[in-house]
Amino acid sequence: MRLHDMNWQAVEAYLERDDRIVIPIGSTEQHGYLSLGTDAILAERVAVEAAEPLGIPVLPVLPFGLAPYFTAFPGSLTLRIETFLNVVRDLLDTLEGQGFRRFAIVNGHGGNAPAQNLARDWVAQSRSHRVQVVFTSWYAAPKVAALAASHEADPTHGGWFENFPWTRLPDVAMPEGGKPVLSRGVVEQASPADIRELTPDGSFGGSYALPDDVMDEIWRTGVVEVRDLLSDGWAFS
Amino acid sequence: MRLHDMNWQAVEAYLERDDRIVIPIGSTEQHGYLSLGTDAILAERVAVEAAEPLGIPVLPVLPFGLAPYFTAFPGSLTLRIETFLNVVRDLLDTLEGQGFRRFAIVNGHGGNAPAQNLARDWVAQSRSHRVQVVFTSWYAAPKVAALAASHEADPTHGGWFENFPWTRLPDVAMPEGGKPVLSRGVVEQASPADIRELTPDGSFGGSYALPDDVMDEIWRTGVVEVRDLLSDGWAFS
Amino acid sequence: MRLHDMNWQAVEAYLERDDRIVIPIGSTEQHGYLSLGTDAILAERVAVEAAEPLGIPVLPVLPFGLAPYFTAFPGSLTLRIETFLNVVRDLLDTLEGQGFRRFAIVNGHGGNAPAQNLARDWVAQSRSHRVQVVFTSWYAAPKVAALAASHEADPTHGGWFENFPWTRLPDVAMPEGGKPVLSRGVVEQASPADIRELTPDGSFGGSYALPDDVMDEIWRTGVVEVRDLLSDGWAFS
Amino acid sequence: MRLHDMNWQAVEAYLERDDRIVIPIGSTEQHGYLSLGTDAILAERVAVEAAEPLGIPVLPVLPFGLAPYFTAFPGSLTLRIETFLNVVRDLLDTLEGQGFRRFAIVNGHGGNAPAQNLARDWVAQSRSHRVQVVFTSWYAAPKVAALAASHEADPTHGGWFENFPWTRLPDVAMPEGGKPVLSRGVVEQASPADIRELTPDGSFGGSYALPDDVMDEIWRTGVVEVRDLLSDGWAFS
Amino acid sequence: MRLHDMNWQAVEAYLERDDRIVIPIGSTEQHGYLSLGTDAILAERVAVEAAEPLGIPVLPVLPFGLAPYFTAFPGSLTLRIETFLNVVRDLLDTLEGQGFRRFAIVNGHGGNAPAQNLARDWVAQSRSHRVQVVFTSWYAAPKVAALAASHEADPTHGGWFENFPWTRLPDVAMPEGGKPVLSRGVVEQASPADIRELTPDGSFGGSYALPDDVMDEIWRTGVVEVRDLLSDGWAFS
Amino acid sequence: MRLHDMNWQAVEAYLERDDRIVIPIGSTEQHGYLSLGTDAILAERVAVEAAEPLGIPVLPVLPFGLAPYFTAFPGSLTLRIETFLNVVRDLLDTLEGQGFRRFAIVNGHGGNAPAQNLARDWVAQSRSHRVQVVFTSWYAAPKVAALAASHEADPTHGGWFENFPWTRLPDVAMPEGGKPVLSRGVVEQASPADIRELTPDGSFGGSYALPDDVMDEIWRTGVVEVRDLLSDGWAFS
Question: What are the chain D neighbours of F58 within 8 Å (beta carbons)?
Fold first, then answer.
């Protein structure tokens, strides 16, 4: 349930019966022909759909993440690493102070990985009660990743694997077919200017789109996989 | 236009004809019977409606702000001041790097005022081109504030002045009437625990609701006032 | 009583009967023809005079504040926001560790407003005893502000409202009369270079001086208003 | 070549013909029966052996990394994430100022992954010349990882895969055989106290040792794989 | 000349003929029977008297420094090291931006020594013009230190060497004679509570006072020594 | 005993009988003809030899320190002051959490002096048990310094006093004789570029080498002096 569809009284009532909460984190950055909000949209949506039947509150997505390499594509935003980690830490601290004990960070952007390191650091702090944080990049979880790979190897940034009805833009026509996949090693060393040269349209390659029924199956798999994590993914009880 | 309804190509095209952008900042915090997202919802919505006819892109709202005093109400979130200011600074820095030169921060939460100080600090940095930042707390702008005061003096946190169709919750009944207004001086010195005692339901007093046509007029006034700022509020040209 | 007119033994004795302390914060920045120290001088002086009959210790004024927009006027100083807030936080932390519980921040400079946000954040920290912070910008407190406005509307930076015998300089002749008041909206968007152009002499407009008896009344009003706050302004007891 | 086996004149001469440098980063933390310095020892050694025939200087290893989860095992050290990232940033900044342009971070500890994010952020800074950073966790590079997996699946922390003649301790006898491998998911949520319970001896499972010829082949493979990266791993030229 | 006795026009005129400025830094901390402001008072006064005939502006003293070990004596204040260094850095940055090039930090408190390290770091930044910073702890400069030692060996904190007419308090009688000098090694390891036990009155030992003519000679020597530094102490020209 | 020659079980056993630990801190920076690692090598070696017979663990040396003024000599590294202090703080925090209570920082580089201020700040934190930190710059301790001065006055950076068999490089011939000693006052104001001009070879003057038996005596004196500190230098027990 979206936290923004609750008032504080509802959260207080919830805390009497549960201590879980979901923190979706995304990014606002170029995704080829798709929405600049792709990673934020997907992270929030998968979190909300996964949490709904469990009744777990879902924070509004953090729409800004770590994407320094995309800054040459207008409309891409990035936080410095320290800023980003501090946002996540402040959210965890505030929520812990209110009685939340189990936190699921649902991530929509590969560059946000240090949030997991932050979470481990945060859990390692000395305290008198147990806290648990699960971190998942929903698109890289085992079932979704396997299913995606069964349709087309090596799903990339800005390609079909991020092309859902809720991330494509109404008046934008996707190119037909696809293009070769960029080398990950090259991308990882590239400056913002390099990346614009490497991919004039922003996509890292592969097909631009797969059929809707494929995407639908992937989405449903992702939702269930996050839901299973929220439900059964807590190592300690 | 919501940035998330654009792709980077659209932003690049926009930058060839304009250099303005809107940054809405809100908060997720108790608002009495209203949505925990009230300040974020209002800031983003007023920004989007104001910017729409002007074609100016609007960032996704920063849903977390400075609300340390509300942390005893579950579901309220707060960033530390440094974290909050760094988020705003990082957004300004990134956008400036892409050619944006005029920035409108549309604020939905009184506690976020230091963002304006940050903006003045940021503008004062040495650089070779001009940047301008206008900052408005939409609900405190002259026309909206005067109109509100004409209906009921001293509109407060969590009361009628924040009670719009898009901030109230479907299954939550508002109390009838109102209650006395809390002293601002007392609130400003209160700890989180104090505030829970001062206001058991979270509202700072006054009526809980005014008629829809009043709220509608206030809203339309606010939208126009922000739009005028986006259109004509730039001191230098 | 100035803390610098005390030794630690005197403070220790004081703490056995009281827990209040005054922290004046100012700025060193251009004030037109007046002293660069105007804001620091006034904040410290009003604090000392207000506190004297109450026997409350007054820290030495923090002479540096937030004034990035004035840096093109030589002799103006500014701290980065984080630095400034950390100074205030460190002072509060140290004093709290010694048993002080009620803190009055007496501010002499509009740009220092984020100190109040810091104070609210600081008060909101979890602790086992109560602390209270009152924050006042002495020149903007209700009685002083009303009295000033009754003499000339819209008192501004570097004008008559800051022109006291202890802020004017012995060998500097003030201009006769006054000049038009700068638009606040324009000033708030101005870079340091802009401000030098907008106001060649540094004043933001209005009369350069009012008669001594007017200023004397304003001063005495300000002292009493701060004293009342120190005496009766604590919300919780 | 170890930087500590050079004087500045030698580095200056080197910079006239090359612009590469190696930054090994490790950790000091429990490794079961093995040396607390295992990750630092391996990172530095593999870097030095790889770089030797290429004549590339190798910094002294950063012996402290991110290992908050191990702090309940005495002798384990950890830096806060910000501290760790700042060390890496400061080293890159200083070396860039001297003319180095291609940097290889050779990592020995899984928890140090955010150094790669820092590197991408650093590369993305605006500058007038090209810099490149390659980041490798030597033990996870494709060839070494495949070879290791061919001997025993799922090599873990503190087990055979880190047991080299230069990480075991002269007077410490390793246990015979092995033990079950801990679940990665459980470990990732564990607090320091949890980890001590999960693994009383510190190893995460699997065999404690493999034959020396196996380890020797793995080592030589790792050295060559890092060397190939130093030699041919630069995406831009 | 005190900066607070100038307006910006005077500083601008000064910068046309000179580029030196004095930054006195002190501390507010227990000094036995003497003023809590001793270090700030002495640093500012020696700076002002030294600079007067040279016409060099003197900033208002930074009244807060690094004195964590004195926090158990009420009225003692301390900044965290980062805060303190940032204040000094911000002042240098702002003044450099206005054309000042030669900075004299006149220090009154032993614990403030890291300001000198900060200054060296600051000077080492890459820039296109030369800046110079001289740092002096006036009481430890060669001539003053030798003269003091000729009167009584080992002058200490809170003893005769800080007892000037402007640091003693009107109604406080100093003890007769003196007491043994505390071991420096012990003091350096002492916690705040330890120091209160080691020195019940705050003085670190030796005589409480020397004759006025001795103190007068010391003072005049100190003023001249600082003046010589301001005049001739610049290594590069 | 080097911590890297121990596993965690050995440290745990040690903590049952002792609570001391040694933290050597060095620098990687130009030392004339000597190794870039001179300060790190000496700090670690003197610490290890001093601690060996006492059985106290010695951390791996922190090989990076504060040396901004040497950055124009390639291969010299420096951390920003905040980074450096945070590393030392993080190490102290982690070790304290494991039961260590007495910490000896053995320093090999003059520029690292702020680590002592950090240590005093750290000791002054409020806690329920006693911690002690001794800080020694081994080369400046009384006996070593006196012995050195008896051989040649004013031992300097990069000269004979740092020329040991373990800091000179096998294939580098030292110049014969010596050269005039640079003025300390000049060096302290010098930018990185200035220092390269002041000392084309990096040495600050004096003889380049003294006879081996002299250096051997100095070394043995240094080791014993550090050992005495580790053994008897704790002010409180």
Answer: none
Tell which residue, A106, A119, A130, has the closest CA to residue A24.
Answer: A106
Summary mean pLDDT of chain C: 97
Q: Are D34 and D163 in contact (CB under 8 A)?
A: yes
Question: pLDDT category, F237, cuts 50, 70, 90?
Answer: confident
Chain E residues in contact with F234 (beta carbon < 8 A): 189
- Average pLDDT estimate for A187-210: 96
Is there a contact between D64 and F35 if contact means CB atoms under 8 Å apart?
Answer: no
Read off the pLDDT of residues E196-207 as tens digits, 9 standing for 90 and up.
999 999 999 999
Q: Which residues of chain F are within 8 Å of residue E120 when distances are taken between CB atoms?
A: 68-69, 111, 188
At residue C122, the pLDDT reads 98
E contact set with F (CB within 8 A): 66, 68-69, 71, 80-82, 85, 111, 113-114, 116-118, 120-121, 123-125, 130-135, 183, 185-186, 188-192, 194, 233-236
* List of chain B residues whose C-beta atoms are within 8 Å of the C-beta of residue C85: 81-82
| CB neighbour list of residue B97: distance below 8 Å, 6 or more residues apart | A71, D126
- For A84, which residue in chain B has the nearest alpha carbon? B87
Distance CA F200, CA F28 (A): 19
CA separation for the pair D83, D66 (Å, rounded): 10
Chain E contact set for C30 (CB, 8 A): 7-8
Tell me whether residues F8 and D202 touch, CB distance under 8 A. Answer: yes
Instruction: Give helix E81-97 / helix E114-123 axis angle, nearest 10°.
Output: 40
Residue A237 has what pLDDT?
Answer: 79
Judging contacts by C-beta atoms under 8 Å, the chain C residues touching residue B135 are: 188
The residues facing B58 across adjacent strands are B2, B22
CA distance E188 to F133: 9
pLDDT recorded at residue C237: 79
Alpha carbon of residue B134 to chain centroid? 13
Looking at chain B, which subunits does it touch, using at least 3 CB pairs closer than 8 Å as the criterion? A, C
b vs e for E156-173, b when ≥16 Cβ sit within 10 Å of the residue's Cβ? bbbbbbbbbeebbbeeee
Distance of residue D122 Cα from the nearest chain F Cα, in angstroms: 16
SS3 for D111? Answer: helix
Instruction: List A62's β-bridge partners, or say none.
Output: A25
- Which chain D residue's Cα is nearest to F84? D87
What is the DSSP code (8-state) at residue A154?
S
- pLDDT classification of E237: cutoffs 50, 70, 90: confident
3-state SS assignment for residue B69: helix
Per-residue pLDDT reduced to its tens digit, B210-232: 999 999 999 999 999 999 999 99
What sign has the CA pseudo-torsion E203, E205, E208, E210? negative
Which of D230, D212, D202, D177 lies closest to D67, judged by CA?
D202
> What is the ipTM score, two decimals?
0.97
| C24 backbone dihedrals φ, ψ, rounded to 5° | -80, 135
Distance of alpha carbon A82 from alpha carbon D86, whole angstroms: 10
C105 — phi, psi (to 5°)? -95, 115
Per-residue pLDDT band at D234 (split at 50, 70, 90):
very high
Using CB atoms, list chains with 3+ pairs below 8 Å to chain F: D, E
| Chains in contact with E via at least 3 Cβ–Cβ pairs below 8 Å | C, F
Chain D residues in contact with A80 (beta carbon < 8 A): 121
User: In DSSP terms, which residues pair with E105 in a beta bridge?
Assistant: E23, E135
- Taking the C-alpha atoms of residue D127 and residue B67, their distance in angstroms, rounded to an integer, is 38
The nearest alpha carbon in chain C to B78 belongs to: C121
* Residue to test with chain C: of E36, E82, E172, most C Cβ within 10 A: E36
Which residues of chain C, if any, have pLDDT below 70? none
What number is the average pLDDT over the span E82-104?
Answer: 98
Question: Rounded to the nearest 5°, which phi and psi values hold at E120?
Answer: -70, -35
